[in-house]
Amino acid sequence: MTAHRNNQSSFSEISPSEFFYRNRDLAGFSNPAKALYTATRELVENSLDACESTEILPKISVRIRYREEERHEPDPRTYVLTVKDNGHGIEPRQAPNAFGRVFYGSKYRLRQARGMFGMGGTMAILYGQITTSKPVTITTSTDGREFHTFRLLIDIQNNKPIILSKSTKRGVGSSGTSVELLLHGDIFRASAKIRDYFRQTALVTPYAEITFIDPQGRLWYFPQTTATVPKVPRETKPHPHGFDFEAMRRLLKHTDESSFPKLLMNEFHRVGKQTARNFLRFAKFDLRTDPRTVSNEETVRLVEAMHRFDGFLPPDSNCLSPLGTEILKSGIVNELKPEFYSIAIRPPSAYSGYPFIVEVALAYGGKTIGEGVRLYRFANRIPLLYDEASDVAGMVVNDLLDRRAYNIPREAPLAVITHVCSTKIPYKSVGKEFLAERPELERELKNGLRETLRQLKSYLSRKGSIEAVLRRKNIYAKYLPLIAKFSQALSGAKSPPRYQQLIKDFEDERVITVEQIANAKKKSEGKIE
Amino acid sequence: MPTQRRRVKERSSNRKVELKAILQKLGKEVYDSLDSNRFPSIDFPSRSVKNIVYEPKSKQYILGSRKVTRSASNIKHIRPFTQLTWLAYFATELVGQEKTSTLRDVYYSSQAYDIEFDDQSQSDSIITDLETVIERAREELNIYPEERSAIFGDLDIEYTVRGYEGKRLNLSSHPDGYLIGPSLSTAEFVDTSAEMVIAVEKGGLFTRFVEEKVHSRFKAIIIDTAGQAPRATRYMLRRLHEELSLPVYVMTDGDVYGEHIAMVIISGSARAAHLRDLTVPSGKWIGIWASDIAKYNLPTIPMSEIDIKRVHDLKRDPRYQKGIWPRELDTFLKIKRKCELEAFSKFGLTTIVDKYLPEKLQIAKSL
Ligand SMILES: Nc1ncnc2c1ncn2[C@@H]1O[C@H](COP(=O)(O)OP(=O)(O)OP(=O)(O)O)[C@@H](O)[C@H]1O
Ligand SMILES: [Mg+2]
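# adenosine-5'-triphosphate complex -> structure
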């Protein structure tokens, strides 16, 4: 058991459900339109997590409809939201708590996942219950043979599920989960955002097949375009640099380990014997101190020393799962259909002991991308649609493109895609909308963007030179025959001069140029024919 | 009436034969390059300001040694190169068929051959290029500007233009004078009793000179330059001097522009530095000088700022460094006044012919 997991009880006395209902802005449920969008997103993210964590190619269908009796009511009104996946499902024992209890989840571990807080899906259910007084229906199967169905309400005061009914059916199919809930929503104001969300999800999740049917019965289909699923991220132990006082206090309280160096080696990321000893000496603790006897004051000193000590190895990025060139490429090619793209995958880096990887992609031209710069932000593969201006990526893109150091005109049709993956994304709020300006993050975003901009710049100049070659050839083809004609007439020669090779040579030169470009093309960039 | 008539020294038809050979050679060089799969190119003297130099010996502006190369391989050059090749061809046709054309005609004719010029100034400048390449004036290619000036006097000419070949005319037969156009420019000089040429700046004075019989009283051929002398007129003056050995005198308004009109006839202009056959270095400016204003008590008008600036500009010009040229400029600066040829009318309409002209011609002998 890690210390983080224990966080779930930190609000237990004041009921987290109640707290979050009262502060629902924080979680992205501030009005009926945003609530409909956020609920859809949270359920879809849970479904994707349930597939990705076991390398299943996701097939997800989403439906939003109004109830027949409210068909002619104006927005906002009650909507039925259904999200169905083919993920690993959930054990029937766990299901009521997973969906009926805030801060209950399987993703507190230090592992890259879309979900982080143990509240996204549950908040959607809670919001639905409060606005419609209707229960949520969950059907889940872990083996594709037994299908368990629950109807739940949440006991808000006590933060626990009330099971209204429970049944099990046998059948033949695949594992997976379906969640259906009723909620107060406003599709009129939400539908553009919801569609953006699906489009952008498709951009970085091209290995998923997503179907969305909107209240008017229109179907939006995002096909699976690659069979590459990103590798499942490994779980990792916390890095000393990111460890806080509360976590340390609990660790020391619950541990059975009496050797201080051993405790450090077992509980922390990349801490070996030598490092553990060096650190304890640095923190002025006797190597023989029994960690279970450390006082609160000494714990403060210990944690402070941990943050200051620079002898720890940097966090290992093995636990991270970046999108990678293949997935980015396939998403970009299918969704943005650009003329050119370039991708930069930055080497792993870390902030406060959390490893992260930044990926930046740039797509240029084509019919789909409009004029100007459009930024697509992602964090652990989740599209971030709100508050671009407050986001660190938003600021970096603004900064760099404003300087025009890359000769790329302001109106150039350009899409910038940034993806940050980490065991802990530095969201500024639980609403998962924008990332904080950690200097390390800012630096990596900048470097990634620079790299892709450089590739675009050189593409544009090569393209310019090919076009110039073609232009030249056309000009020669137009004027040389005239020169030939008049010089023949002037000189009195009987037959026209044989100059055709001059134009032919030029064609050959052009072919070479195109081939050279093809050869020089790196794996991380490409031109779409 | 004097009867002693002069014989023509040199006939101009040789030049025509030469010209055709030059154009053919140009065509052959371009043809040969293409035929051996090389991009043709043409070298000719640069006409940029830096390459226009004053040659004291000939007292005129000429082009220096700097060359430009126009190559068909350069995509910026290939269009003007094509235009130039076409123009050489078109000029050969003009000369061969003995047809003339104006600058404007050339611009429009190009369209029949799929040669595009953006506007007439572009075709005009290609014409200047060709002049530079072959070192012949466009008039020899039968290409004339619209502007015309006039000639009058006892000179027998023989037309060479198609339809008039062999036909002769005496240039004193019509009192309004004759336009110095293509047919006159290409005519052969046969015979004359004239002993000098007087070029005047203004049509009014030209008419007065004819009325007052200057041509017979002074044995002069009279030419109206109509302001700054067009190149055809300068070419005509040159021929009258070269072929008939006649001295050339120029009479202009008494201002800095008049002085410069005379200078261009005598020493040429920077703009035509690529051509050598447009000057009469031995020509004389006989007035109205700045110093004549006081001497003849002529009515004047004040010089403007621009006039004064122009004087300062010319004072720096190498052509204005010797003789009457700087002296008169200084006088203009001193009196800051100018006058027109018509100013003599104050003393009666014929005073300029009866008194001023003979006195100045006398003075000119000592210049
Ligand atoms: N579709 C699903 N398939 C399998 N398990 C699910 C599914 N949806 C939710 N769960 C389980 O329910 C738990 C709670 O989900 P919830 O969305 O409330 O929190 P979370 O995803 O852990 O974190 P976050 O607040 O960041 O979304 C998850 O941790 C997961 O174990
Ligand atoms: Mg979730």
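# post-check
The two ends of chain A are 53 Å apart (CA to CA).
Residues 1-12, 509-523 of chain A have pLDDT under 50 and may be disordered.
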